[in-house]
Design goal:
Strand content: under 5%
Distance between the termini: 77 Å
Shape: elongated
Number of strands: 6
Length: 655
C-alpha cells in the first residue's frame, strides 16, 4: 500500500494513547483519506488544519463534536473522518456524542466495515451500552447489514430505551414490515419501556400501512392512557391512520377534538374529504383554515384543487387560484398543471388554454391535460394538433397517459386511420388503450373491424372494451348488436346493476315491458342497487341537486309542446323504466336546466353537471332550448362536456 501521509500514518500505529486501546481503520477508508488529502477535498491546508486543531483544547470534546457535526450536516463525510482521526491522534477521548456522529457518516457513505470498527471502538471505550450509541448502531446495521442484525443488537442491549425501540420499529416500516413494528411496540409496552410521542406515531404509521383499524384503535387507547392523545404529532398520526383505514368519521372526530391544529392537520382532513368525494366539505374546511390565519402550502392547495375541478365549483376554483396569486405563493409546475386541469374540468377551457400557452416549461403532464381537455370539449382536432406539436418536443417523452389522451381525441374527431397509426407506437398497451381503439372504430361505424380487433387482441373478457363498442351502437342505432353487447356485459359482471339497467332500457325502448318488469324483479331479488341519476347546478354560492322525478317547471313543458318538440329514447345508464313511472320530462339534467333558466338573467351561460351519461332526449332538449331561448348551456356528464349553442352541441351528437 502507498505510504500514508505522516499526520495520518500515526493513527494506524499502535502508539495511539487512548486508554491503551489499539485502533485501526479499514483499508477503503485509509485510501479514501489519502485521496481526499491529495485531491484537495479537505478544504484546509495541512498547516491551516493543524493550526485549527491546535486551537482546540484537548479536553474540549464538545468543540470537536461540534466540528464533526458541522461536517456531517454538510455531507462532508471525509472531513468527519479526518476530524475524528485528529481527535484520536491528539489523545482526545471521544464521548457518547462523538461516536453516533461518526457512525452516521459511515451509514451515509455506505461503509459497513468502518461502522463495525467504530462499534469495536465503542466497546473498548465502554460506550457499547450507551443508548445514544446503541441507537446509532441499530440504524447503521439496519440500513447497511440487515434488520435481523439490528434486532439481535437490541435484544442483547441491557439499556435499550424508547429511542432504540422506536428506531428498530422505523426500520421495520422502511422494510415494509408494519406488523413486526406493531408487535415490537406492544412488546415495548409490555416490558414497561417509556412511551413517548415518537414511539406512538411510529406504531400508528404501521397501523395505517396495514389498514388495520383494530390495531390502530389499540394504539390510540395506549396514547390516551399515556396522556399523549392530544399531542400534535400523535394527533396528526392518528388522523392519517384513520384516513388510511377508510374511517373518515373517526378521523373527523380526532380533528374536531384537537386542541391545536397545524397545516398538516387541516391538509390531511381536507384531502381526505376531497378524495372520498366530499368536495363541499373539503372546500368548507379549506376556507375555515384560511379564516383561522393558517397559510396553505402548495400541498394543501394541490389537495383542494380536485374539489374545484367540477362545473359546480368553478367559482371556488377561481378563488383558490386568485388566493395563490394574491399571496405570492410560488407555483411549481405540478401546481400549475393542477390549476390548468381544474379549469379544464370545471368548464373553462379557454382559461385553461391561455394558462397552458403561458407556461414556459411544459412537461408531459401539461400537454396531456390540454390534449384530453380539448377532446372532452368535442375539439378533438385541436387535441390532435397539440399532440403533433408535442411530438416535436424531443426533450419530452410521451407516456401511456398521453397516448390515452390522444386516442380519445382521435375518437371524438373520427380520425380512424390516424388512430390506427398511432396505436402501433404504444409499447405494451393497457386495456384502456384497447378500449379507446375500439371506440375509435365503433364511433365511426366500423363495427366489423371493431369486433375483429377485439377477437384478434383477445380482449373479449374486459367490460371496458364492450362498453366502448356499446357506445358506437348507441350512436349508430345498432340495436341488435347493442343487445348482444349488453348481454355479454351481464355475463362478465353479473353483480353490476348498471348492466341490467342497460338491458332493461333496451327492452323498454322496444316496448317489451314484460321483460322490463322481469329484469326489475331480478335486480331486486339479487339485492343490487343501480346508481340514481343526479344533476346539480350552482347558483349564488349554493349547490342545488335534482333527482329524476322531481317537479319539472311547467313553463318549459309548455314551450316544448308549443314548438312541437318530441322526446327521443335510447338505451343508456339512466333508468328508462324509472322515467316511465315519473312525470313527463322528469330527468335530473332537465330539472337542473329548468331551475337554471328561471333563476338566472337572460343571456347568461348555464353550467350544470350530471353523474351519469346524458340521454338522447335530454341532449336534444338542451339543443332545442339553446336555440329557442338563445342561451349557452355547458353540461358535463360522466364522459365529456356538452356545450350547447344556437341549437348545436360541441360533441357533434356523438357521445
Amino acid at each position: 500500500m502507498e505510504a500514508l501521509p505522516p499526520q495520518i500514518h500515526c493513527f494506524f500505529s499502535s502508539n495511539n494513547p487512548i486508554n491503551n486501546a489499539h485502533f485501526t481503520l479499514s483499508l477503503p477508508l485509509q485510501n479514501h483519506i489519502i485521496m481526499a488529502t491529495k485531491s484537495g477535498e479537505l478544504s484546509l491546508t495541512h498547516h491551516d488544519a493543524h493550526h485549527l486543531f491546535d486551537e482546540i483544547p484537548l479536553s474540549d470534546t464538545f468543540a470537536w463534536n461540534n466540528l464533526i457535526q458541522t461536517h456531517l450536516a454538510t455531507g462532508d463525510f471525509s472531513h468527519v473522518w479526518s476530524t475524528y482521526n485528529q481527535m484520536l491522534l491528539r489523545g482526545v477521548r471521544p464521548n457518547r456524542h462523538t461516536l453516533p456522529r461518526v457512525l452516521a457518516a459511515s451509514r451515509f457513505f455506505g461503509d459497513l466495515s468502518l461502522g463495525k470498527q467504530i462499534h469495536g471502538q465503542a466497546m473498548k471505550l465502554g460506550f457499547s451500552s450507551d443508548h445514544y450509541v446503541i441507537t446509532a448502531l441499530l440504524e447503521m446495521y439496519g440500513r447497511l447489514d440487515s434488520i435481523d442484525m439490528a434486532r439481535w443488537l437490541l435484544d442483547k442491549s441491557p439499556h435499550a430505551n424508547s429511542v432504540s425501540w422506536t428506531m428498530l420499529a422505523k426500520l421495520y416500516i422502511k422494510e415494509e414490515k408494519p406488523k413486526l413494528a406493531i408487535d415490537l411496540f406492544h412488546q415495548m409496552v409490555k416490558v414497561g419501556a417509556e412511551i413517548d410521542s415518537v414511539a406512538l406515531a411510529t406504531a400508528i404509521v404501521a397501523c395505517g400501512m396495514l389498514k388495520s383499524l383494530k390495531e390502530g384503535r389499540k394504539i390510540h387507547l395506549v396514547a390516551r392512557k399515556c396522556g399523549l392523545e392530544f399531542d400534535v404529532l400523535v394527533c396528526n398520526s392518528l388522523l392519517k391512520m384513520y384516513i388510511d383505514c377508510g374511517s373518515i368519521q373517526d378521523a373527523r372526530t380526532i380533528f374536531d377534538q384537537m386542541p391545536k391544529k397545524d397545516i398538516i392537520s387541516w391538509t390531511a382532513i381536507t384531502h381526505a374529504y376531497v378524495k372520498k368525494g366530499g368536495y363541499n366539505e373539503g372546500l368548507k374546511l379549506f376556507r375555515e383554515m384560511i379564516k383561522k390565519g393558517l397559510k396553505p402550502d402548495l400541498f394543501a392547495v394541490s389537495s383542494i384543487l380536485p374539489a374545484c375541478a367540477r362545473i359546480a365549483a368553478g367559482k371556488q376554483g377561481k378563488e383558490v387560484h386568485g388566493y395563490l396569486l394574491r399571496n405570492g405563493i410560488g407555483l411549481s409546475l405540478a401546481v400549475l398543471n393542477a390549476v390548468i386541469d381544474m379549469y379544464v374540468k370545471s368548464g373553462y377551457i379557454q382559461t385553461a388554454s391561455k394558462m397552458f400557452s403561458q407556461l414556459k416549461n411544459k412537461d408531459v403532464v401539461s400537454w396531456t391535460v390540454m390534449i384530453l381537455g380539448y377532446s372532452l370539449y368535442g375539439q378533438g382536432e385541436l387535441g390532435v394538433e397539440l399532440f403533433r406539436k408535442l411530438e416535436k418536443e424531443s426533450r419530452i417523452e410521451i407516456d401511456q397517459k398521453t397516448y390515452d389522451a390522444v386516442l380519445h381525441a382521435f375518437s371524438t374527431s373520427n380520425l380512424v386511420e390516424k388512430g390506427k397509426y398511432y396505436f402501433k407506437f404504444i409499447k405494451a398497451p393497457k386495456v384502456s388503450h384497447y378500449a379507446l381503439m375500439v371506440a375509435i372504430l365503433a364511433n365511426s361505424g366500423h363495427f366489423d373491424e371493431a369486433t375483429t380487433f377485439i377477437q384478434e387482441q383477445k380482449i373479449e373478457k374486459h367490460a371496458e372494451v364492450h362498453r366502448a363498442l356499446l357506445d358506437g351502437c348507441r350512436i349508430h342505432r345498432r340495436t341488435q348488436l347493442g343487445k348482444r353487447v349488453i348481454e355479454q356485459l351481464c355475463e362478465l359482471e353479473p353483480l353490476n346493476a348498471e348492466n341490467y339497467v342497460l338491458l332493461s332500457n333496451w327492452y323498454a325502448e322496444n316496448a317489451k315491458w314484460d321483460m322490463v318488469d322481469k329484469l326489475k324483479a331480478t335486480i331486486r331479488d339479487m339485492g343490487l342497487k343501480p346508481r340514481k341519476a343526479y344533476s346539480w347546478i350552482e347558483l349564488r354560492n349554493k349547490i342545488h341537486v335534482f333527482g329524476t322525478g322531481d317537479v319539472f317547471h311547467p313553463s318549459l313543458m309548455k314551450i316544448m309542446e308549443d314548438e312541437g318538440h318530441q322526446a327521443v329514447t335510447d338505451y343508456s345508464f339512466h333508468d328508462v323504466n324509472e322515467e316511465r313511472e315519473c312525470v313527463k320530462f322528469g330527468h335530473s339534467e332537465m330539472l337542473a336546466l329548468s331551475f337554471g333558466l328561471i333563476s338566472t338573467q337572460a343571456g347568461s351561460t348555464i353550467r350544470l353537471t350530471k353523474n351519469l351519461r346524458v340521454c338522447r332526449h335530454c341532449h336534444d332538449f338542451a339543443k332545442f332550448i339553446s336555440k329557442i331561448l338563445t342561451r349557452e348551456i355547458i353540461l358535463k356528464d360522466q364522459s365529456r362536456f356538452h356545450h350547447f349553442k344556437g341549437g348545436f352541441c360541441s360533441c357533434g351528437d356523438v357521445w
